[in-house]
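Minimal example, chain plus nicotinamide-adenine-dinucleotide.
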Amino acid sequence: MKIGFIGLGNMGGPMAANLAKAGHKVAGFDLAAPMPGGVVKAASAAEAAAGAEVVITMLPNGAILRAVADEIVPAMAAGAVFCDCSTVDVESARAVAGQAQAAGLGALDAPVSGGVGGATAGTLTFMVGGSAEAFDKVKPLFDIMGQKAVHCGEAGAGQAAKICNNMILGVTMIATCEAFALADKLGLDRARMFDVVSTSSGYSWSMNAYCPAPGVGPASPADNGYKPGFAAELMLKDLRLSQQAAEAADADTPMGELAAALYARFVEDEDGKGRDFSAMLPRFEARHRQ
Ligand code: NAD
């Protein structure tokens, strides 16, 4: 298949490389990042998109996605599919899908879970909004870049699934970290705490797969000085998207709101920027009841 790929950063680079490795013809464009092996560099986003059957974008945010869409939608071939894999606000996802459909294109919002490790290994999970026809056309590419693709519903449904998932993740990480800090003060050994909670009703991905306590549980960023992994500022971005969506949809999300406020303080006023999002544990360790 002829593929255009725009945004080849930490995630997009290895995703595009996997498509090229599988034998697809990939034309890439990025303002800064180098092209990975097998990807042909285009002179502009429009040039990467022209003539492609599927155009994939992997960009930092909704405003940049909208600007890129303005540039590439007129350049895309009739019947091609515009597949955005970035994490953006639901409104931008729906606006770009509407713009593409009005121009006779297919459109999907297909954000991912799995991080840079998953992008490199080709084991991402895709959560996808858009028509069944567009989903079926891009599914073979999802199968190369990932291990699972769920068709969640119409335009915006993929972003909705992503921000709901990450709101749960932010809240459970905070709960897990504050519980470890409390356990410390109660004199409970961390390994014993993990042993109990990871097989009791307090378990979660944050505890079991990504334990924020160094030396406890499986290897995680906590064992590597809290080097990301998944940076605290990216968690803050996703929590803000969840709160923006909650406000637009008039949904009551008090825990998500509190998690967004805590990560904002951590990233903007404390030492959280550039650290893994599980570094909430040393933050709680260092603080007393207020
Ligand atoms: P990144 O900053 O490494 O990559 C983004 C790339 O987009 C950069 O290389 C940048 O030069 C390029 N870019 C920006 N504006 C552009 C434009 N107008 N035209 C062409 N290229 C442009 O970010 P990333 O970590 O690869 O994340 C990309 C998206 O994936 C984000 O929406 C992020 O939230 C999401 N995501 C990231 C992770 C992760 O662990 N890093 C996990 C899941 C989802």
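Strands lie at 2-6, 25-29, 40-41, 54-57, 81-84, 106-109, 112-113, 124-130, 146-153. The longest helix spans residues 157-185.
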